[in-house]
Amino acid sequence: MKITKHIFLLVAILLFASFKKQEEGIQLQNLRCEMLVNPEGIDVVKPRLSWEIISPQRNVQQIAYQILVASSPEKLANNEADLWNSGKVNSDESIHVKYAGTTLKSKKRVFWKVKIWTNKGESTWSENAFWSIGLLNYVDWKGRWIGLDRSFEWDNETQFSRLSARYFRKEFQAKKTIKQATVYIVGLGMYELYLNGQKVGDQVLAPVPTDYTKGVKYNTFDVTKLLQTGNNAIGTVLGNGRFYTMRQDYKPYKIKTFGYPKMLLNLDVEYTDGTKETISTDESWKVTADGPIRTNNEYDGEEYDATKEMPNWNKVGFSDSNWLKAQLVQEAGGMFEAQMTENMKVMENIKPVSIKNLKANTYILDMGQNMAGWLRLKVKGKKGDKITLRFSETLQSNGELFVRNLRDAKVTDVYTLKGEGQEIWEPSFVYHGFRYVEITGFPIVPTIDDFDGRVVYDDMATIGEFETSDKTINQIYQNAYWGIRSNYKGMPVDCPQRNERQPWLGDRTTGAYGESFIFDNVRLYSKWLNDIEQAQKPDGSIPDVAPAFWRYYGDNVTWPGTYITIADMLYHQFGDKETIKKHYPSMKKWIDYMQEKYLVDGLITKDKYGDWCVPPESLELIHAKDPALQTDGILLASATYVRLLDVMQQFARLLNKPADVKAYSRVAEEIKKAFNQKFLNPQKGQYSNGTVTANLLPLVYEMIPANEKTKVWNNIVNKILVDNKGHISTGVIGTQWLMRGLSQNGRADIAYKISSNRDYPSWGYMAENGATTIWELWNGDKANPEMNSGNHVMLLGDLIIWYYENIAGIKSAKDDVAFKKIIMKPEMIDGLNAGKASYHSMYGTIKSDWKKDGNKFQWNISIPANTKSLVYLPANSLEKVTEGGKKIVGIEGIKFVKTEGKQLILEVNSGNYSFSVN
Ligand code: BGC
């Protein structure tokens, strides 16, 4: 009795102890390879591995790691690292650790795990993670490109071309038991893939678009579970995408087209006995263009006739005797590239907020939100009933759709019913930018329950959240969130609704940096840098649109310069040095090209767009005509070029190229000199005509002679507060630095005023006037519809950066990038009483949540393991500060650094902290 009692007690103690150990244990999470979770088919043979360290304890720093990489999960479970055992490496690196094991060949499947040692003990092994290598060499691809190089009588090959989708099928026999099956597909412009009737993957509008003459992306899927021994069927559907492009024979000198849709597919099957076989595209495949998707075109919409459905076409046993033989066609041209960024997906489903009967048989559906994607419908009716959907961002005063700002995009989807009970339909190969949908031909009175708004963009996580005590700022943030996600389409596009949707470089120069606080956009943007590099001409010229679906080689500085600023963003926010290394030669080539061609007497003499879209003098205008509102193009080009030289110097230092550092700095000095000679008016204390942009750029780029700085600064303040009564007057270029420029120089209050205005011109004015996204123009409610999208992100400038870095106060240190060292420094602004954000960095989640009330300040923060922070508190002495209710002496993880004016600076290591200032 006594003994059992003791045993019981012992077991209880042991259980408790082990529970406790686990609770305090260090865990490794979110293992990533090339910043992707368990990627299939990558084409990097020495990929970079990253992990996150989770610990409830404070002050956890990694001191060593060990990585095991094996060729099977079984081997990995036995710690048999037949591909790579890094050994115990003394290092605090936990992101971008390069694989250094056996050289990996095409199709290799690889399993890995990691363990770390910290100042607080060691972790157990992580869960297993995975990656596989794609088809690295041209010769790894078997089979032929297939397609149909023709149109059909129901197609329309005019400027508004709309082809029907092409359906392909092939049956094959798997003779033995399948161990592993992997499919590699290049389906252009867009594909859907089915095996034995089941859709492969949850991607839509795949693959991501590229300039198909330069590079084509293939997608890889593990399809072992979808195949069976015996007969199997493969089915694919090809849509136009950007391949058979949106406007045929329309300005062919400017707009690229690539040909009819086509595909190449390899299905690799490995049997349990070790034998292998590849099923690939060839003449034995069958094809029809006479299926239910009658037309599809990104701008104009999709028409689906359910009476033309071919039940079970993608399953074994379907009779395809009246289908055509697939045609062997010319290959697409570009090199095969593994797609290293996620495809698009339906990322959210939203319900409409209202439906109104406009006139007989015509309804207007309101999604309550401007969005990009499409509408899914649910309907019952007769065979042949035809429902037409048209989309728009706004309504006219009579309640009808306002479509003039869509230019000639027809944005019309048509669904023809088959009349067999409930039918659910959504398109496959289009997306629309819309809030309102006009519905005609619905067989019964529709209700909002019959529809879903399908929000479509690249499958990337939302990694940031942000909120303040100011309602206007919160709403602008929501509008920005919707605007940004609307405009990710396998590349960042300018707008999702009109006949444009182009990846304009200038729209993202600084925006991409702000966006990176909200979305895990690292892979999208590194893909985009490849697009830009591919678009570069042999002489060095970079276009304004890349991929260059529209041919715009205008040789200005402000748009192409985005190539460099985004590489900088990827490094600063995500620690991606590899991208800088890869692109450095091309960036340098462009820098040199611009210099050789346009540097005349110390100034860069070429600009194209000016400070694009400043608030104009009268509300119907798109661009200001008044010279007083415009900023000199040479000033913009030269100042921007100086800034880019500065970034290039940082890159050159990072890559250890001292000669380049010297050369860039010499040219920068030469330009600064000429710039000040030409544009600085010391009497007036202003540059050129004294626009905010003209003065702001030299200020933030540190081009102003020391003794003139105050005057120029005062000029900016005066211009904003007096001339513009606290309003914005900058366009796409000036807005990139406005908020930070004001904050850095001690006037966060002005930045706050600008960002919380609700009258014209301001972001708040857009919200006040019904915007649920960000407009292309400050006067987007009144301006000429010719160039007036309701869903553009370029005017955000540096606003989102300012929200996170200055209001929430979460910023990565410049030298310890990717938030390895975090600067926690919220601005204290009169009238703004609370700020809150969380941001999921490569190291883990950072949080800042502050409130102030008179002289009282309360601040909860979280700092991820293996990072450090510098925390700036609004207090002038240590006496006034407590953490967790205790005085700041001898608290683990906190070290006093100094007081600086009204601020107290602490070094704070990882963990959760709760500071109060009284
Ligand atoms: C686009 C902009 C783009 C600009 C440059 C516009 O039509 O929508 O976002 O940057 O043209 O010319």
Short description:
This protein is α+β, with helices and mostly antiparallel strands and 918 residues long. It binds beta-D-glucopyranose.
What does this structure look like?
This protein is α+β, with helices and mostly antiparallel strands. It contains 15 helices and 48 strands. The strands form 9 sheets. Strands 20, 21, 25, 26, 27, 28, 31, 32, 33 and 34 form a 10-stranded mixed β-sheet that branches. Strands 35, 40, 41, 42, 43, 44, 45, 46, 47 and 48 form a 10-stranded mixed β-sheet that branches. Strands 10, 12, 15, 17, 18, 23 and 24 form a 7-stranded mixed β-sheet that branches. Helix 5 packs parallel to helix 7, helix 10 packs antiparallel against helix 11 and helix 12 runs antiparallel to helix 13. The site of beta-D-glucopyranose (BGC) has 10 residues, from loops. Beta-D-glucopyranose binds next to loops.
Fold topology:
Layout: H1 2-24, E1 27-33, E2 48-54, E3 62-70, H2 73-77, E4 84-85, E5 89-90, E6 97-98, E7 109-118, E8 121-122, E9 129-132, E10 146-147, E11 166-174, E12 178-188, E13 190-195, E14 198-199, E15 215-222, E16 230-239, E17 262-271, E18 276-280, E19 286-288, E20 293-297, E21 301-305, E22 324-325, E23 327-328, E24 335-338, E25 344-350, E26 354-359, E27 362-379, E28 386-392, E29 394-395, E30 401-402, E31 412-416, E32 423-425, E33 432-440, E34 451-458, E35 464-468, H3 471-486, H4 511-518, H5 522-535, H6 562-574, H7 577-598, E36 599-600, E37 603-604, H8 633-654, H9 658-679, E38 680-681, E39 686-687, H10 692-700, H11 709-723, H12 738-744, H13 748-756, H14 763-768, H15 799-808, E40 810-812, E41 821-824, E42 834-841, E43 844-853, E44 856-873, E45 881-883, E46 886-887, E47 894-900, E48 903-917
Helix pairs in contact: 4-6, 4-15, 5-6, 5-7, 6-7, 7-8, 8-9, 8-10, 10-11, 12-13, 12-15
The protein binds beta-D-glucopyranose.
